[in-house]
Design brief:
- α3 packs antiparallel against α4.
- The model has no long low-confidence stretch (mean pLDDT 78).
- The protein has helices at 2-10, 93-98, 101-113, 118-143, and strands at residues 19-25, 28-34, 37-42, 45-49, 54-56, 59-60, 76-81, 87-91.
- It has 4 helices and 8 strands; from the N terminus they run αββββββββααα.
- The protein is α+β, with helices and mostly antiparallel strands.
- It starts with a helix and ends with a helix.
- 37% of the residues lie in helices and 28% in strands.
- The strands form 3 sheets. It has a 3-stranded antiparallel β-sheet, with no helix packed on it. Strands 4-3-8 form a 3-stranded antiparallel β-sheet. A two-stranded antiparallel sheet has the order 5-6.
- The longest helix has 26 residues, at 118-143.
- β1 (19-25) and β2 (28-34) form a beta hairpin.
- It is globular.
- Its cofactor is Mg(2+); Mn(2+).
- Belongs to the PP2C family.
- It comes from Solanum verrucosum.
- Keywords: Hydrolase, Magnesium, Manganese, Metal-binding, Protein phosphatase.
């Protein structure tokens, strides 16, 4: 929360953002979240996920300096215990709008089968999630009149 507060009060640029700041200390993940979502997946099953943060349907909080905008007080503070081989997925709501929990779990399970190196796994999982989401969006567009 300290990092988020400092960034918020020192910001001089115009604009708004969502944020997910994560720190891993031993076996504890500490996170501060504004709008974006995160999940912890153990052995291919989601065991923890952050709440959706929005004022109304498709109207998310936006961190921005100014009277009419949200400030850092809307941030969600999260603490989760993790184990070796747990997978943490942090993403914008765009991913979670297009991939249901069970679909995300399957993508991670399939990736864990071929796990040889963490960096390779991270890149492969990010690529698989992006490709999967793109396919779903394309399929949806084809359904439009």
């Amino acid at each position: 929360m300290e990092v988020l507060n400092e960034a918020y009060f020192k910001a001089k640029c115009q604009g708004s953002l969502t944020a997910y700041i994560l720190t891993l200390t031993c076996d504890i993940v500490y996170a501060v979240n504004i709008v974006d979502r995160g999940v912890v997946i153990t052995v291919g099953v989601i065991v923890s996920k952050s709440e959706i943060q929005q004022k109304g349907f498709n109207y998310p909080f936006q961190l921005r300096n100014g009277v009419k905008f949200d400030d850092q007080s809307v941030a969600q503070e999260i603490k989760v215990t993790v184990r070796t081989r747990d997978v943490i997925v942090m993403a914008t709501h765009g991913l979670f709008d297009n991939a249901h929990d069970v679909e995300l779990e399957k993508l991670v399970r399939d990736g864990l089968v071929d796990l040889h190196e963490l960096g390779t796994f991270s890149m492969m999982l990010a690529r698989k999630i992006a490709e999967y989401t793109l396919q779903k969006v394309k399929a949806f567009i084809h359904l439009l009149p």
